[in-house]
From TrEMBL:
Gene3D superfamilies: CAT RNA-binding domain, PRD domain. Keywords: Repeat. SMART domains: CAT_RBD. The keyword Repeat applies. InterPro entries: BglG_antiterminators, CAT_RNA-bd_dom, CAT_RNA-bd_dom_sf, PRD, PRD_sf. SUPFAM superfamilies: PTS-regulatory domain, PRD, SacY-like RNA-binding domain. This is PRD domain-containing protein. Residues 65-170, 173-281 form the PRD domain. It comes from the Bacteria. Pfam families: CAT_RBD, PRD. Transmembrane segments: none annotated.
Length: 281
């Protein structure tokens, strides 16, 4: 690989044999090196090949201002998240998360703490991402000696949630709005039935999962009622469920009114069934 740009002793931009632009990092990787020289690949510890051009350019700008130690740590956090979540993450997360953690560390050292007003909802609805955020705080303390507040676990989780990429199209979700709406729907169910929901039950977990995917479909506008294409079987099943689970169906209609959209019969069916299951545990 040929060195094209040197950020510091530990980070460079290089071109490989396939003429791809790569950010390479390693302790002393660029020490006493010059642009145009061949990079000693034995010193490479991490490489970044960002497919999205804008993300790549922003990441290179970030390297000029952020310590390579922090960049390297954020890389490890993102790779750790990819393995645990088993999802594809948008390239831009390398920029957004690194920038956020760098600023959080600066604020902490200056005696300032930022709060996360929806940390409770994140912990509740995005438990995997939140657990990764907690682990990230441990990594930061171990590697950098900086103890960030627990609210930062929620902020890190938000970056991971926003970076999750749908297989058919890239959608950055408005997570704050989504979590509020999920909580509102749960409250509609609670107040309608005048009960406390068992948040540790499998039916509760499945209901939350259904709502999360529902809002993904909503963002892609796949939720509108389409009478011409609906199957007769769905109409029949919905009518049966409507008769059998009158309270759950009535509650579903309240949810539909709250959402201010007309749901398809299929969505009405599944929402009613989930409400029925989550209220009988």
């Amino acid at each position: 690989m040929i060195i094209k740009k040197i950020f510091n002793n530990n980070a460079v931009v290089a071109k490989d044999c396939a003429n791809r632009e790569i950010v390479a990092m390693g302790c002393g990787i660029a020490f006493k090196m010059n642009i145009g020289e061949v990079l000693d690949e034995s010193k490479i510890e991490k490489t970044f090949i960002l497919k999205e051009k804008e993300a790549s350019e922003r990441f290179k700008l970030l390297l000029e201002d952020v310590d390579s130690e922090i960049v390297s740590l954020c890389y490890d956090i993102i790779e750790y998240a990819k393995n645990l979540l088993d999802v594809e993450l948008n390239d831009y997360v390398y920029v957004t998360l690194t920038d956020h953690i760098n600023n959080a560390i600066k604020l902490q050292k200056d005696g300032f703490n930022t709060s996360n007003v929806i940390i409770w909802e994140i912990r509740k609805f995005y438990s995997k991402e939140y657990a990764i955020g907690i682990k990230a705080l441990e990594f930061i303390q171990e590697e950098l000696g900086v103890e960030l507040p627990e609210d930062e676990a929620g902020n890190i989780a938000l970056h991971l949630i926003n970076a999750q990429v749908n297989k058919r199209c890239n959608i950055k979700k408005d997570v704050s709005k989504q979590t509020k709406m999920i909580n509102d729907i749960l409250n509609i169910v609670r107040y309608t039935y005048n009960i406390n929901l068992d948040e540790n039950s499998l039916s509760y977990e499945r209901f939350i999962t259904h709502l999360r995917f529902f809002f993904q479909r909503l963002n892609k506008k796949e939720f509108y009622c389409d009478e011409e294409n609906e199957e007769d079987s769905e109409d029949f099943l919905l009518n049966q469920v409507k008769k059998k689970y009158k309270n759950a169906y009535s509650c579903m209609l309240k949810v539909e009114k709250y959402l201010e959209i007309e749901l398809s019969n299929e969505e009405k069916l599944y929402l009613t069934l989930h409400i029925q299951k989550v209220t009988i545990n």
